[in-house]
Amino acid sequence: MKKVFGILMIVAATMTISSCAKYDEGSNFTLLTAKSRVINVWTISAWVANGNDILSFNTVESIDVKKDNTVAITTNIFGASVDNGTWAMSDDKSSLTFTDSSGSATTYTIVRLTKDEMKLSSTNNGVTYIMTLVTK
C-alpha cells in the first residue's frame, strides 16, 4: 500500500510540475528566478512583424539588462551609440517594460525565458512583433 501511495504522489507531483509552465514556450522547471534569467547581455537573433522577417532592419547590437533595473541599448546606425534606460518586470512575471532615456516605454509579453534565450512579443498599431534574443 505504501508503494502505491508513493507512486501516486510521484505521478501527481510530475503532473503538477509539467502543467505549470509560466511562459508559452518556457521550460517547466528552473532553479533560477525570472529576474535572474533576464539579467544578461542580449543580442537579437530573430525579429518578425506579423510573421515577416524584419531582422535585416535591426540596428541594435546589444541589450545589457542590469541587476539595478537599468538597461543599456547599443545601436549602430552611423557609428555606435548607447541609450540608457530602465526596465521592470510585472508582478506576475509575464511581461517586461523597457523605458528609454526620453521616457518612452514599451511593454513586451514574455513568450520564452531561459538563461540563454528570451522571446518577447508586443503589438503596436495592429502589428505583432516577436523578438528572439540570445545571450551575447
Could you explain how this protein is built, in words?
This protein is an alpha+beta fold and 136 residues long. The protein has a single domain, classed as Domain of unknown function DUF4822 (Lipocalin, Beta Barrel), CATH 2.40.128. The protein has 2 helices and 9 strands, in the order H-H-E-E-E-E-E-E-E-E-E. It has helices at 2-18, 34-38, and strands at residues 40-49, 52-53, 60-65, 70-76, 80-89, 95-99, 105-113, 117-124, 127-135. The chain has an 8-stranded antiparallel β-barrel. The relative contact order is 0.19.
Question: In a few lines, what is going on in this structure?
Answer:
It contains two helices and nine strands; from the N terminus they run ααβββββββββ.
Work out the strand percent. Answer: over 45%
**CATH class identity:** Mainly Beta
Q: What's the total count of β strands?
A: 9
- Pairing-aware structural class of the strands and helices? alpha+beta
Order of helices and strands: HHEEEEEEEEE
